[in-house]
Amino acid sequence: MEPLHKKAITKCRVQLIEDMIVEDLLDRLEQEEVFPVGIVERINAGETRREKARRILDDLMRRGPTAFDKFVQCLRDSQQGFLADKLVEQEGELRRENLGNLRHPTEETSSQIIAHPSDYHRMAGTNHRMDVD
């Protein structure tokens, strides 16, 4: 899952946990192969609806690149379009913020620009230095 999608889910987490109807949604997520049977069983082992919703979100963030879009569609298909709309809206806001940061870098974002190839290793957290002429 894209970091942007994870951030959108995180920003909507409280509302998703409060409002998500888990049973039908979970069946749809299994049908769309977002979750295998083992994960569905683990989620269903949650004692409360909220605990199941938390488990869905936690496991969802560890799924592949199509998980976010499938989750949004499953929300729509299970009559929870208002939650799908909230996620898509949040995703759009985050994309616009990222685009704005690229167009108008702040001191924080501009400091992330790699000025020299040897800087890559420093930013990646390694101590290896590349000698470039």
Number of strands: 0
Segments where pLDDT lies below 50 for 5+ residues?
109-124, 126-133
Q: Roughly how much helix do the residues carry, as a percent range?
A: 55-70%
Beta-strand content bin: under 5%
What structural class do the secondary elements suggest? mainly alpha
What number of structural domains do the residues give? 1
The CATH topology corresponds to: Death Domain, Fas
Rounded mean pLDDT score: 85
Structure explained in plain terms:
The chain has 133 residues and is an all-alpha fold. The chain has a single domain, classed as Death Domain, Fas. Helices cover 69% and strands 0% of the residues. The protein is built from 8 helices and no strands. Helix 1 runs antiparallel to helix 6. The longest helix has 23 residues.
Could you provide a short overview of the structure?
This protein has one domain: Orthogonal Bundle (Death Domain, Fas). It has eight helices and no strands. The protein has helices at 3-19, 22-31, 37-44, 49-60, 67-77, 81-103, 107-110, 117-123.
